[in-house]
């Protein structure tokens, strides 16, 4: 592959990627403010970044339990259980989802198996609002949320 010139051999750094994303967000925001017109292809960048997932909510056979079926697996073939008061310190998607659901105060427990999330509701809760939490699991930048700064990114970069 010798002879391939500069741009092909160059690798993007995290900072360069972040600057490009910020540029797209700035363009979209400026256009929205100026034209008050639809943003076309930039709309998805401006509205949110990440991967929306399709979620179907259904009541379980037991009272006080709600099931969510996702269009992607969170655990593979493993079972994960989380209860109120548990220290959920993992960084995987099922851990993050459990943290978010338990933080609502409407949930006593979460069970995740592959693409099915079963939620034990707290006494008196009806599960309103939980569907949105599950749907937004993989959305990272939404309106009003800024990407990390260069300093924040570089401070987290491995050294050596």
Question: In words, what does this structure look like?
Answer:
There is one protein chain. The protein is built from six helices and seven strands, in the order αααββββαββαβα. The model is unreliable at 1-6 and 36-48 (pLDDT under 50). It has helices at residues 6-9, 14-35, 43-47, 93-103, 130-135, 150-156, and strands at residues 49-50, 55-59, 65-70, 79-83, 107-113, 116-121, 139-141. It is elongated, with a radius of gyration of 20 Å. The longest helix is centred in the first third of the chain and has 22 residues, at 14-35. It has a five-stranded antiparallel beta sheet. A two-stranded antiparallel sheet has the order 1-7. With 160 residues, it is an alpha+beta fold. The two termini are 27 Å apart. Helices cover 34% and strands 21% of the residues.
